[in-house]
Amino acid sequence: MNKAIISIIFLIVAPNSFGQTNENNAWFFLSHAQEVSKKWNILADVQVRSSDKVKRLKSLLLRSALSYNFNDKHSVALGYAYKGDWEEELSVLNYQLEHRIYQQYLYNHNLKRTELSLRFRLEQRFVKEENTFDFSQRLRSFLSFQIPVVANKDFSKGLYTAVQNEVFMNILHKERVNNHFLSQNRAYIGLGYRWSKKIDTEIGYYNWRQKDKAGATVSNVLQLMFTTTL
Q1: What residues does each domain of the chain span?
Q2: Helix, strand, or coil here: 112?
Q3: Of 144, 163, 149, which Cα lies nearest the Cα of 194?
Q4: Which tens digits make up the pLDDT trace of 195-224?
Q5: Of 230, 144, 140, 143, which is closest to residue 192 (Cα–Cα)?
Q6: Which of 71, 173, 174, 202 is most buried by its number of CB atoms within 10 A?
Q7: Residues 96-120, buried b or exposed e (16+ Cβ, 10 A)?
Q8: Running DSSP on this structure, what letter comes out for residue 18?
């Protein structure tokens, strides 16, 4: 077993006790795919995140992309994301701005009625520090399963459970972010209801582990999510 695999396992199952902090947060996530033609989609996401103990707004993420579908299983996308963070230091809120350009590959597959999604996303990050922007690159690897619990035969309506995990890797200029190759892990389980093939609603729990230069943060996140496809 090589060093990278050992590091991923450690990041997922073993919290970093040195300098570790714990938080409890809430997220709201709206994800939309707009079909332009059989080959092209426009993707749009809005995510709002709270600070610890849901005291205030901490982050706003706006993301969009143009997606090309090779077929029902394979697609690629080119997109842009805007992220704003309000970080509190000595009772003063400081605003941190980040721009991202990203490229994405998505693979969708059905295992009987269970829906599997595998996604790789390469991000070019521009994080504002005073009067300059620090550039770095990050790779994200995402795997999810939507498993029908009480649903109709073609899973176009009904109750389901969602299980997913995403690993974040800094592949260029890690010293400009948290100085770690393996940066984050987000493990998630949720319960959702599919109203039709076009609308899902879901509530779930994230165990979110982030490394920084001083230690690590482990967050318990409650997320409410709406997914629409038109």
Answers
A1: 3-229
A2: coil
A3: 149
A4: 999 999 999 999 999 998 888 999 999 999
A5: 144
A6: 202
A7: eebebebebebeeeeeeeebeeebe
A8: T
